């Protein structure tokens, strides 16, 4: 079975060809994975402008799909099914991928599968590593989401908790914007932080008094909150700007702030994920989504895995940030379960998983 995946949920137009291998230990193989990033276009505005994003998807989608087919040395006749991101995401962006995939599937007479973007991020772990030990706890950490899932059976995702306010990637992007570092903030702060003192600034502790927000609940729910940290950074920066009489902080302060901020985010993500894994008796931990590309998160999680004897699985960088190979993989999972999208499939901006 060969699946063409299409992903247009935010500011990346992506298409990929993924095929089944027949090997249960590593069921899928990426034949091509093409991403046309709009980062340069949105950078000017300091973030994604939805209307511009959807127009750019319209311009790029045909070329991206053709490139994915030619990179895979395939043509339309080789495609057995299509998979497309139905949501969550920007509705105008999603609609471009959904309309394109529906039209192509109809014209080819091939089945179409609707994929939840977060399921795609989760399946990127299986796409990279093959079958991992179950039950597994998977953290999906991106620009729009910070959610923990328990996976007891492949393709079965149980939400354990999520952020009550900002996603971790959103916190990165907002802090970078505040410091005048540009967009997207995650990779910029990641790079800057490597040279900084991560103990330079002690952020106020996360409140542990409110069980609804910050402590694991008795039923095994694990939520996150990043808005308090974001506000603490904002206060710190405003105070320093006032003291210095300048908008721009000295570079060494920016570097130390980045390192201290990143340390707090990474520690929170790892602590909560491992706590959830212990609570639920997980045999493996997975990290997926754009923030899982973070160098410190990857290194610290793998180091903790060695100490705690729960193995950690993270996709390679090309599968961490938004891509269509993960959507094709999640599509193959759904096809195996017999889930085909109806002809009146529509985009769903807040599709739950
Ligand atoms: O999964 P993704 O590509 O798109 C969404 O589904 O949101 O994630 C994008 C997010 C952005 O917030 C970006 O700043 C963050 O992932 N990100 C990173 C890194 N690379 C991307 N955050 C921290 N460190 C990175 N190296
Ligand atoms: Zn994503």
Question: Can you walk me through this structure?
Answer:
It is a single chain. Helix content is 44%, strand content 17%. It has 353 residues and is an alpha/beta fold. The longest helix has 29 residues, at 251-279. The two termini are 25 Å apart. Helix 5 crosses helix 6 (185-193). The mean pLDDT is 94. The chain has 2 domains: 2-121 and 320-336, Nucleotidyltransferase, domain 5, CATH 3.30.420.40; 133-310, ATPase, nucleotide binding domain (Nucleotidyltransferase, domain 5, 2-Layer Sandwich), CATH 3.30.420.40. The strands form 2 sheets. A 5-stranded mixed sheet has the order 3-2-1-4-5, sandwiched between helices. Strands 8-7-6-9-10 form a 5-stranded mixed sheet, with helices on both faces. Bound molecules: 5'-O-[(R)-(carboxyoxy)(hydroxy)phosphoryl]adenosine and zinc ion. The site of 5'-O-[(R)-(carboxyoxy)(hydroxy)phosphoryl]adenosine has 19 residues, from helix 5 and helix 6.
Give a summary of the structure in a few sentences.
This protein is α/β, with parallel strands linked by helices and 353 residues long. Helices cover 44% and strands 17% of the residues. The chain has 2 domains: 2-121 and 320-336, Nucleotidyltransferase, domain 5, CATH 3.30.420.40; 133-310, ATPase, nucleotide binding domain (Nucleotidyltransferase, domain 5, 2-Layer Sandwich).
């Amino acid at each position: 079975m060969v699946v063409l995946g299409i992903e247009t949920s935010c500011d990346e137009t992506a298409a990929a060809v993924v095929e089944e291998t027949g090997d249960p230990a590593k069921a899928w193989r990426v034949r091509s994975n093409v991403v046309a990033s709009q980062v340069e276009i949105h950078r000017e505005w300091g973030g994604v402008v939805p209307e511009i994003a959807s127009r750019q998807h319209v311009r790029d989608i045909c070329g991206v799909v053709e490139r994915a087919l030619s990179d895979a040395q395939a043509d339309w006749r080789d495609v057995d099914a299509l998979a497309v991101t139905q949501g969550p995401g920007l509705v105008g962006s999603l609609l471009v991928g959904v309309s394109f995939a529906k039209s192509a599937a109809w014209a080819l007479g091939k089945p179409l599968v609707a994929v939840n973007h977060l399921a795609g991020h989760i399946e990127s772990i299986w796409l990279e590593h093959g079958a991992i030990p179950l039950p597994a706890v998977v953290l999906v950490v991106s620009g729009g989401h910070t959610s923990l899932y328990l996976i007891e059976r492949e393709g079965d995702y149980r939400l354990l908790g999520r952020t009550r306010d900002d996603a971790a990637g959103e916190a990165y992007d907002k802090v970078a914007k505040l410091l005048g570092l540009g967009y997207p903030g995650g990779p910029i702060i990641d790079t800057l932080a490597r040279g900084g003192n991560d103990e330079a600034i002690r952020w106020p502790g996360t409140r542990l008094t409110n069980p609804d927000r910050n402590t694991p609940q008795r039923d095994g729910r694990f939520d996150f909150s990043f808005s308090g940290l974001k506000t603490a950074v904002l206060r710190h920066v405003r105070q320093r700007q006032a003291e210095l009489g300048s908008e721009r902080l000295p570079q060494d302060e920016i570097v130390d702030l980045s390192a201290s901020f990143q340390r707090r985010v990474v520690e929170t993500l790892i602590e909560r994920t491992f706590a959830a894994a212990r609570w639920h008796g997980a045999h493996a931990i997975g990290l997926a989504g754009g923030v899982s590309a973070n160098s410190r998160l990857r290194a610290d999680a793998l180091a903790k895995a060695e100490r705690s004897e729960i193995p950690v699985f993270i996709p390679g960088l090309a599968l961490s940030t938004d891509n269509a190979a993960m959507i094709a993989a999640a599509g193959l999972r759904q096809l195996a379960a017999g889930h085909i999208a109806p002809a009146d499939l529509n985009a769903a901006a807040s599709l739950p998983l």
